[in-house]
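Quick question: what would this complex look like in 3D?
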Amino acid sequence: MDFNDTAQEAAFREEVKTWLTTNIPSNSELENLDYIQRAKLWQKRKYDAGWACIRWPKAHGGRDASAIEQVIFNQEEAKFDTPDGIFSIGQGMCAPTMMTWATDEQNERFMPPLASGEEVWCQLFSEPAGGSDLAALRTKAVKDGDDWVVNGQKIWTSGAHYSDYGVLVLRTDPDLPKHQGLTYFFLDMKSPGIDIKPIRQISGGANFNEVYFNDVRIPDAQRLGAVGQGWQVALTTLMNERASIGGGGGGVNFNSVFELAKTVDLGDRPAIEDPSVRRKLADWYVQESGLKFTGYRSMTALSKGEIPGPENSIGKLVGAPKQQDMANFALDLLDQAGIIWDEAHSVNAGMFQATYMASPGLRIAGGTDEIMANIIAERVLGMPQDIRVDKGIPFSEVPTATK
Amino acid sequence: MNFEFSDEQNMLREQAQTFLRAECPPQAVRQVLDGDAPFDRALWQKVVDMGWTATAIPEAYDGLGLSYLELSVIAEELGRALAPIPFSSSVYLATEAILMAGSEAQKTAWLPKLAAGAVIGCLAAAETSGQASAAKLAVRYEDGKLSGSKRPVADGDVADLAVVMATSESGPVLCLTDLNQAGVARTAIKTLDPSRSHAEIHFDQAAAEVLGGLGEGWDLLQALYDRAAVLFAWEQVGGSETALEMAKDYSLGRFAFGRPIATYQAIKHKLAQAYVKNTLARGNCYYGAWALSTDAEDLPIAAASARVSATQAYYYASKENIQTHGGMGFTWEFDCQFPYRRSKLLAVNIGSEAIWQEKLIAAIEAQRAA
């Protein structure tokens, strides 16, 4: 047992380090650019040098790298403060789905500009009536010649407003049972009839959108999988979503609360000297280290060319509530001043307040805590699915709040 | 990155599982729980014959000279089987104390016997209710003699040799004493987990030798606990998985309101949480095993992390296993009581959760101050 790279991995890590050190954008390069322009600049630079989406085939703009090489690249890149965040859905979820289900010609057309960051993709799955119960979506597609005509509404679409393309699941036959009447497509986000409205969040940001479809036409050639096979295709996307969303890494963590506890008083002494504070900190520390070493186990599997076990499925379910609880605890340590959320006047520029308000979203996005627990129970422990009262009946006859 | 057990170590695990499934089924735990025998002597002898008591003892003292990774594998499997034998006392505590602090003469005298199972060892540290401290020690070492009482001592009634935490004119001291002598009186005591026996030991001018240095005893005990904590944590993770498996199996076969209770989210989410806690504890145990096997500087942090998370995981899985079984889980006839009892024994045996939470934060502070 050791934490060392193999000779080959160490050489690769050196190569990555060297390239990153000499190519990270300088502050002056990034000056006067917004976050989208910054992200695009960095992505293009990686792409031009062969360091974008390195796990992808070379023909699609990648490097034909191994899974462990991807992990090593990510680790080294994370040591720098690089602009990112706008490509993870496209490259992490849309691309694997396209590469599994689209034609060679389509992938040759669409994958390289997705890898280079010149084209941004989004994912349009959730609907007002279908979140955790994703297959209950109702946005309709009706065949008309070589096109499908789409009407309805999607919601929680990250980055819809700056995306060039998107993947989506639509209901093509409401008279079939829920999962059977779905079909999967990709589309041009600039198509006529698409209306995008940002959603204001309780955290103050607006990362998500509502997307309305009014007689939007999608060519049948942009269908992925057969008509009615949409659920199966969607599972490719979802499996990659859960693999790519870690949660619990940044923001409030053991270190930030540990440091805070040294600087604020509880009674007549620093909070860090209080046994109840120390016990709580210990609990969070062992959660963080447990996740870290579970990650090392997965990395070992990748290093050996094996597929990691199911243990990685716990990351989001542990990380998201932990952030919320730690932020809540930190605010209590600040006592009455905990209520102040003002970058100029809050401790750590308001990071604890920001996390307190953002963490409810972390527990919902990419599969709620409850869905994640179901997934662990069903796929890891092998327990049966919940009883589904909508099973086997035409979707149009499934009970809703209004019928 | 090679953060995994080797093929040989995994083979050892398979052998251990096959052996314990045959030799230590739940009925074996029940027999000790219900019967008069203080432990399963037949199982103990077979474990000795397999060489497990000799695992991490160097070959120079008739051991197998394997690493703590192998001992971790064995610990997890013994924990999984809830083995009713004095393995943790004899191997993780007494043997480790002598390996860590014993003189050459003490090692030569005792390690071959511990390796061969000819001698069972134990650790006598606790005296009163509440957290122990060097200042509160009443058992006294003076001129080669021990006086005073220790309780509870896990496996104290069946052990031949005790490592005793005592105080002396020169401060705290760890002693080594033969329990089969006139100055030692032992009384079995009732505990929460009768599948592992406990005793009160009274020393009346019992002959004893100093282990390590006079005045160093308390620090040595803490260092011993750090080493043992990793192995205890592996037993706890093994037991925790047993509790989760029991709960899952029962939920699949038990019907309520016309369907298996395993289809209810209240049950699924509870067991998913148990899986999460077990997985976190296992990750920390890997780190503990690595730190113990390489004598790493951060062993105190690694050991406390493994210990805290494994204690929490075992408590959760064992209590929710009873809950999942409903009323049947509360009956003497069902086996749900075994992990619930054992989880508490392992949780307090080398210091409670609160002590290890404090040790962890103190170790992190020490590391960052260095």
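Answer marked as accepted. Chain B touches chain A through 48 residues (CB under 8 Å).
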